[in-house]
From TrEMBL:
Plays a critical role in recombination and DNA repair. Helps process Holliday junction intermediates to mature products by catalyzing branch migration. Has replication fork regression activity, unwinds stalled or blocked replication forks to make a HJ that can be resolved. Has a DNA unwinding activity characteristic of a DNA helicase with 3'-5' polarity. This is ATP-dependent DNA helicase RecG. PROSITE patterns: HELICASE_ATP_BIND_1, HELICASE_CTER. It comes from Shouchella lehensis G1. It comes from the Bacteria. It catalyses: Couples ATP hydrolysis with the unwinding of duplex DNA by translocating in the 3'-5' direction; ATP + H2O = ADP + phosphate + H(+). Pfam families: DEAD (PF00270), Helicase_C (PF00271), RecG_dom3_C (PF19833), RecG_wedge (PF17191).
Amino acid sequence: MNLSQLRVDTVKGIGEESAKALGGLGIYTVQDLLEFFPFRYEDYSLKSPGDVAHEDRVTMIGTIQSEPSIRYFGKKKNRLSFRMVVDGVLVQVNFFNRAFLKTKIQLGSTVTVTGKWDAHRLTITGSELKFGEIERQGNVEPVYHATSTISSKQLQRWIKVALEMYENQIVEPLPATIRERYKLLNKTETIRHLHNPLHPELVKQARRRYVYEELLYFQLRMRVFKQQHRELQTGRQLIVSRDQLDPFFAQLPFTLTGAQNQAVDDILADISSPYRMNRLLQGDVGSGKTAVAAACMYAVVKAGAQSALMAPTEILAEQHAKSLADWFEPLGLSVALLAGSVKGKKRTVLLEKIATGEIDIVVGTHALIQEDVFFHNLGFVITDEQHRFGVEQRRVLRSKGESPDVLFMTATPIPRTLAISVFGDMDVSVLNELPAGRKPIETYWVTHDLFERVLGFIEKEVMAGHQAYVISPLIEESEKLDVQNAIDLYTMLANHYQGNIQVGLMHGRLSAAEKEDVMSAFAKNDTQLLVSTTVVEVGVNVPNATVMVIYDADRFGLAQLHQLRGRVGRGDAQSTCILVAKPKSEVGKERMRIMTETTDGFVLSERDLELRGPGDFFGSKQSGLPDFKLADVVHDYRTLETARQDADVIISSNVLEHDEEYAHLARYLKEIGAYEGEKID
Ligand code: ADP
Ligand code: MG
């Protein structure tokens, strides 16, 4: 008998009334009951004063050292206090409004106290007191969401009975191969440990297993929907192959990393397939997304179509146009820049060439999506730093061709989960390794009084042949003040270095031509120090720069700091990032600390979400997500990603048809295949 078809009142002790009340919690079947998990656990394992943190909930066992004393406040309130020795440490115990316990507390006897720990005062504010040593099966107790009619304890009892009756009928849906691969508990153990853990570690393991299962099912669902979606979205089919790329790779000054190669393969497979590609290329700053894009653009051009790359800023478009021209022109491809700075006659001529197909590759800013831009045969569209563009802009760019394949590139780690949970129909390629030889950027946090020393450090690095950025404080409310800050800092630094170091100045009020001059002077090492506002935040690539100083760093969010830091560490030399800040808030301080602790964008975004809370980020979008029992797409996104890859393999291999291990999953998919009403937008 399938537990999902067995009514909950078949459990001994659950009558009609109780079954009705359980229905209020969404529990109708035995399976519902068994998978109604505690929302937290009470940990009663014994702790020592030395190894618990301030404000932790703790349980300690001690020997009473002082007669209890009682203080009364007003009529009804009182505090009972005594001292006990726990592992050789004298601990103060306070109980509020339990004066009646006084007679039971005897000098020299043993008690177990559970409560909140104050590490500064070595005090427990108690909530539970047991005489002697406690006897428990385990030290962890589940706490369930209770209702007015069902208590947590009641649920605990029913679930215990249900387990006794039906434990041996729990079906294992996961193939043994997968369970072995990730060292996952079996389903029965999982359910048992989630309800009756003997140890907190077992809860963790059980949770890990359950979350994986939930997310794998979720991903399988997504995958099935995606396929249905794909059948509706036919695109063009270009004949591209890896061999065609040989000339491109031959002149590229480096060889691709494994991750880059994999991404190129993913993209080429999409381009040569009949459905329209809709793919996200995600790679941390400096992971080399441009080279991946370039290789694929090259293949598309060889197959007879045009490619377009849209970047969010002029500086970035300019830089891309330059590196693509360097790579492609020797190979006989024509590359053009279409940005706001291209005007008048020049622009007319360029538009003509794009329309006739004389230009193979067009790089640009928003200027690319103006109404009068027509392509001859646009087959492949890329947006760099895609989060900078709105949905509408991306749509317009796509509409410039006939169902062109589309690639979005981003360094923001969050969209990986977003892409999966919100843009359910997007494929994802991840660059999860940096080019060989990169050294992790060292990050320091200093206060303003050390700025002199920072300037000395910059000088030393410049003397060693390197370059540096100094980012001026951000004033978001006022561009004028923002620019003024940059100018002031520039003047100060130019004075300080007195011509020993050439200083450049970059900000948003410069004209496109001026920006270009400033950037190219820095790229050529004519200036060694670039003072800038955040206009250099994304994409800028000057590998010789090794120092990034961020002034008033606490004004920036973690994502922004990470992007800024990513402007260095792009070559073989050791790079350094210095955060100059005196944050006022705890969160501000925490941000600085996190920056010094990790350079991994995924870890950072995770911490960022923890600091800000997922609500901020997901907002109403979260409502589009299925209700998970334990999984949390924000905190479990690594598992989400693993599950996604596994779901891909499961669907694309034919294990579902042939392999007995996968029978359960196969049945499930057949069932959901029938849910035609469900949508994924
Ligand atoms: P991002 O992913 O941040 O856009 P870029 O594409 O700008 O990174 O690449 C960062 C730097 O690394 C560039 O100078 C690029 O030429 C270089 N690069 C890219 N791939 C490799 C590689 N496989 N080996 C060495 N250097 C590489
Ligand atoms: Mg980039």
